[in-house]
Specification:
Layout: H1 40-112, H2 117-123, H3 140-150, H4 176-184
Helix pairs in contact: 1-2, 1-3
């Protein structure tokens, strides 16, 4: 019988279960050689099977990378679309805010006695406007009154008060009719 050197017949390390390390050979299907080592045919079959699994693993890994790339591309496209939509929403919000502000200025300018409310909007310093939580202008009336004081020609002809309304004092409560009645001696 040949002498056992502790190496496999192909020159590699002995397989697990070799008698030299004291363990028992693994249970198999009975096609092992008498000394407990796999035959060359079994080794070739195992190598072929391992190679097949390595190919399948590489193919699966490649497929996974392709899927992740496609997913990443889809994610990037969706992120780009989200940015576009956010920009459109911001533009629409600004447009709506501008329209609402024009309406507020027009109403307030008409109420305060401006001759042309559109001109009031154009001359108003919009940077000085302050807004509340509901995007409503807080100091609009004050800014419009300041504009009327600095530019009195913007007031309507019958509005000599500069948009400040009636003032308290001796003329309070008197209109043109009551002045005529008092001058005619029929005053109340």
């Amino acid at each position: 019988m040949p002498e056992d050197t502790g190496q496999a017949p192909d020159g590699g390390t002995p397989p697990e279960g070799d008698e030299q390390n004291g363990s028992t050979p693994p249970e198999g299907d009975g096609e092992q050689s008498t000394d407990g080592q796999a035959t060359d045919a079994e080794k070739a079959a195992l190598r072929k099977e391992a190679a097949k699994y390595r190919r399948e693993l590489r193919a699966a890994e490649a497929k996974l990378r392709e899927h992740e790339q496609a997913k990443l591309s889809e994610t990037e496209r969706l992120q780009q679309r989200v940015k576009e939509l956010e920009g459109e929403v911001e533009q629409a919000r600004k447009k709506a805010q501008t329209a609402a502000l024009r309406s507020h200025v027009s109403q307030a300018a008409g109420r305060l006695g401006f001759q042309n409310p559109t001109v009031a909007y154009r001359l108003l310093d919009l940077d000085k406007l302050e807004f509340d939580d509901d995007d409503e202008p807080k100091n609009l009336d004050a800014l419009l009154r300041e504009l009327l004081r600095s530019e009195p020609y913007l007031a309507r002809a019958g509005s000599a008060d500069g948009g400040e309304g009636r003032r308290s004092g001796s003329a309070a409560g008197q209109d043109m009719n009551s002045l005529i009645r008092s001058a005619a001696g029929r005053g109340r």
